[in-house]
Amino acid sequence: MGMDEYLHQPRLTLEQTNLVPAKLKAALLQAVDKLGDTLQQRWHNAWHPLRLHGDCHPGNILWRDGPLFVDLDDARNGPAVQDLWMLINGDRQEQRIQWDILLEAYSEFSEFDIHELSLIEPLRAMRMVYYLAWIARRWQDPAFPRAFPWMTDEDFWRRQISQFTEQEKLLQEPLCSLLRNFNEEVRRIFHDEKDLVCTDWFSAGV
Length: 206
Known about the structure:
Elements: H1 3-16, H2 22-42, E1 50-52, E2 61-63, E3 67-69, E4 76-78, H3 92-107, H4 120-137, H5 143-147, H6 154-171, H7 184-192, H8 196-203
Antiparallel strand pairs: 1-4, 2-3
Helix pairs in contact: 1-2, 1-4, 2-4, 2-6, 4-6, 7-8
């Protein structure tokens, strides 16, 4: 799992697809490129690769006498946090509670490197681009136009440009400003490692 498969190749797909309105394609690609430039600064490979589901969100968990994971098309090697972040939703307080429960439960089965939390927003950004390209690559399958009719909407692509822009701005924020969804113990780890950006923010009790 990395930027080539999840950003560079999808970017090429979006450049070649006819789904993007011609008058918006340049703006879309420019937004993707700017997102990619910032991602290059945030992404790192300092993680231990695990075999992942790859698309682990509640919609891919079938509850029938216990949980069953379905849709393994995106199974690959990557950081453990990839199979965690898409399970989280709600407002900041709800997310903090969910992360506390999820990380505690995960630690009962395996160690979790807390530094992988810094990859959440880069992974989210790459998924945004990858997902659009995934649909575009399969558009000739009659099931896809029926399932994703909004992909032919000009307003849809305008929203994607806006979302890419907002995500790029989010990636530029100091790491500690992105840790507000986690408990004090997690934030203290980053603070104690002499992240100077964290120091003032942590001391303020945000």
